[in-house]
């Protein structure tokens, strides 16, 4: 007995439209972007997909198809009537499940007269749907197929990233590189733990989940029997396919085979492409922000907050949504997707979907927004790795992501090529270095601030014991335990009494204990502010005097324009007062004015360590970095 379309797809007649679309997408992923590796039935499979999608994707036609199945499964008289009706209707090949008109010899005279009367002034017949699926014959994206275009785009990406590296790399590269490597190592360990946890949870869910006993699809067998029977599936007639559509189908398949396209999921290629897109877009926004800050449009404090590693990813990924939608709707790919050979095609399983520019742009916007919201967690750094790991597990299990299924998108992959791969991998590594250099200092400051805040919130040991002790450690005004008691002072014991000693006992009560005797003058505790060592106190006083002199003369020479003398004085100031942000700021300004930009950057970074909240130091470092680039360009122009 012939199979039905539902049996061929492995679904039930009561299956929802979403599950029907899922079954069609499963077949499209299997056959659509598959080269001819010994499978000569690819064309026949696509023709079956065209036939099934036109019937089951339209609710009206699916309803008529269900009625045909119900009639075929009825009584013997109903089956005979059904066969007779089909025999009368088969004047030629039918393209769809259609209403079978009542035979002419069974029509009454009144019905024939009514058709004659209403046929003269009847409205125009409704426009028929496209009898063939246009998505199956759509040409693959050929953007960047030319070697000249490939070389030009790769050279452009490489030059842009190299210029950013020269502009951002600090003078103390070795010190910064060590810090960046530490941060990258910690980040990779954290990402490994997150992915391991998500993968473990997904594995446990798969093992605990009971296997669903679905129907086994008979598509391959139906494709083999495609032309052996005149009525291919129960309830449908033989599909009509014109020669032009068959020619377009074959040409599209040959082009896919020539470009090496495949619809198998490649999650790491897609992840690398998305990270590259975000990273290159972030560099463009950073350049724009730097220019706006230089012209005074954006204040320095606001620019520093925008560039913070906890805020910048949210802005970068959010602003990329409309840009990505425009690129996908127009050329079907993005810079990162093109480098790693990832291409998108919309409305692949719906034969009746709108395919104009506006509809494609709306689908691209919805998909990009869902990726931003559900795929990367709005770009928030603490949430994005978890959602990316979850999306990876779904892609590995379902062979597609939720946003691709929702917008009926088919993601295909092609060989990126050696030049594209080298450009993409090296570009990712270089941009990883750039973001590490730009974010390591703000991240360290944020961690230090959080640590200080937590430490201040937790009460110290002195605070906890302060409620039980009064007067700085003295209980009820008594002397601390470390102070020796006056009774054991050696002076009264070793010194003989004076001449009027016999009269002393008469003035002092005999019962008074010796320990309550007043201590001598030599045993009185010195004041807290008294110097421990007079020579050390003298040295400190001289040092404070020198600091007062250089701290006044250095800025004065700086204001007077005597840069060399100001640098000398500020250098001495930094040596005398070790933890002073003002001294290093003075030194950096003097060196910057003389053109020693690398030394100035080092001084400004030292000042930044002692005063992390001073945003003017960032602007000073930015000016010195621009000065280094300007000197480099002037040197090589000569």
What does this structure look like?
With 638 residues, this protein is mainly α. Helix content is 63%, strand content 2%. The chain has 26 helices and two strands. Strands 1-2 form a two-stranded antiparallel sheet. It is elongated and about 125 Å long. The N and C termini lie far apart (87 Å).
Strand line-up of the largest beta sheet: 1-2
**Helicity level, as a percent range?**
55-70%
Using the alpha-carbon principal axes, give the shape: elongated
Radius of gyration: 42 Å
Give the SSE string.
Answer: HHHHHHHHHHHHHHEHHHEHHHHHHHHH
Task: Tell me the structural class.
Answer: mainly alpha
| Unreliable stretches | 88-95, 98-107, 115-129, 467-517
Tally of separate helices: 26
Report on the biggest sheet: 2 strands, antiparallel
| Mean pLDDT rating | 75
**Counted beta strands:** 2
Distance between the termini: 87 Å
User: How much beta, percentage-wise?
Assistant: under 5%
What's this model, at a glance?
The chain is mostly helical. The chain has helices at residues 5-9, 17-31, 42-56, 59-72, 76-89, 109-120, 147-168, 173-208, 219-224, 243-259, 267-294, 300-306, 312-331, 335-339, 357-375, 384-398, 402-406, 418-457, 461-466, 490-494, 504-507, 534-560, 563-576, 581-594, 597-610, 616-637, and strands at residues 342-346, 409-413.
């Amino acid at each position: 007995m012939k199979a039905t379309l539902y049996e061929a797809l492995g679904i039930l007649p009561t299956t929802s439209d979403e599950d029907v679309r899922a079954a069609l997408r499963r077949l499209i992923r299997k056959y659509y972007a598959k080269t001819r590796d010994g499978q000569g039935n690819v064309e026949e499979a696509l023709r079956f997909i065209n036939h099934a999608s036109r019937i089951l994707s339209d609710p009206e036609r699916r309803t008529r198809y269900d009625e045909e199945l119900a009639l075929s499964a009825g009584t013997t008289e109903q089956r005979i009537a059904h066969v007779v009706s089909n025999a009368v209707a088969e004047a030629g090949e039918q393209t769809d499940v259609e209403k079978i008109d009542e035979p002419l010899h069974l029509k009454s005279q009144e019905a024939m007269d009514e058709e004659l009367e209403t046929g003269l002034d009847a409205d125009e017949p409704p426009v028929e749907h496209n009898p063939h699926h246009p998505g199956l014959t759509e040409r693959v994206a050929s953007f960047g197929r030319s070697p000249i275009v490939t070389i030009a785009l790769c050279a452009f990406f490489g030059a842009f990233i190299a210029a950013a590296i020269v502009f951002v790399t600090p003078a103390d590269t070795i010190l910064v590189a060590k810090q960046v490597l530490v941060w990258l190592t910690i980040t990779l360990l954290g990402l490994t733990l997150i992915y391991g946890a998500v993968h473990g949870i997904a594995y446990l869910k798969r093992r605990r989940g009971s296997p669903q006993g679905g129907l086994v699809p008979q598509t391959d067998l139906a494709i083999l029997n495609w032309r052996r029977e005149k009525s291919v599936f129960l309830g449908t007639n033989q599909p009509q396919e014109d020669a032009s559509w068959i020619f377009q189908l074959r040409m599209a398949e040959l082009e896919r085979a020539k470009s090496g396209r495949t619809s198998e999921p490649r999650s790491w290629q897609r992840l690398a492409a998305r990270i590259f897109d975000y990273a290159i877009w972030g560099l463009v926004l950073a350049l724009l922000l730097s220019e706006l800050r230089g012209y005074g449009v954006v204040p320095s404090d606001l620019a520093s907050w925008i560039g913070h590693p906890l805020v910048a990813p949210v802005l970068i990924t959010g602003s990329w949504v409309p840009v990505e939608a425009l690129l996908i709707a127009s050329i079907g790919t993005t810079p990162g997707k093109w480098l790693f050979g990832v291409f998108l095609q919309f409305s692949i399983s719906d034969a009746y979907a709108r395919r104009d520019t506006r509809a494609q742009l709306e689908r691209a916007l919805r998909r990009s927004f869902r990726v931003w919201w559900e795929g990367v967690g709005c770009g928030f750094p603490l949430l994005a790795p978890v959602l990316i790991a979850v999306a990876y597990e779904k892609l590995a299990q379902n062979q597609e992501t939720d946003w691709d299924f929702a917008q009926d998108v088919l993601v295909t992959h092609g060989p990126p090529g050696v030049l594209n791969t080298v450009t993409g991998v090296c570009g990712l590594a270089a941009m990883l270095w750039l973001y590490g250099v730009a974010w390591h200092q703000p991240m360290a400051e944020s961690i230090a601030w959080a640590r200080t805040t937590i430490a201040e919130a937790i009460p110290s040991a002195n605070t906890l014991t302060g409620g039980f002790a009064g007067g700085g450690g003295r209980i009820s005004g008594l002397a601390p335990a470390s102070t020796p008691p006056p009774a054991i002072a050696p002076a009264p014991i070793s010194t003989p009494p004076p001449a009027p000693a016999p009269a002393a006992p008469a003035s002092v009560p005999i019962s008074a204990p010796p320990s309550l005797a007043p201590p001598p003058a030599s045993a009185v505790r010195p004041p807290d502010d008294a110097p421990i060592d007079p020579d050390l106190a003298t040295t400190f006083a001289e040092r404070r005097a020198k600091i007062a002199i250089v701290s006044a003369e250095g800025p004065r020479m700086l204001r007077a324009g005597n840069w060399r003398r100001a640098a000398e004085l500020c250098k001495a100031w930094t040596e005398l007062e070790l933890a002073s942000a003002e001294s290093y700021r003075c030194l950096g300004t003097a060196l910057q004015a003389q053109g020693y930009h690398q030394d100035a950057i080092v001084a400004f970074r030292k000042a930044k360590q002692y005063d992390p909240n001073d945003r003017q130091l960032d602007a000073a470092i930015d000016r010195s970095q621009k000065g280094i680039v300007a000197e480099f360009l002037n040197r090589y122009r000569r």
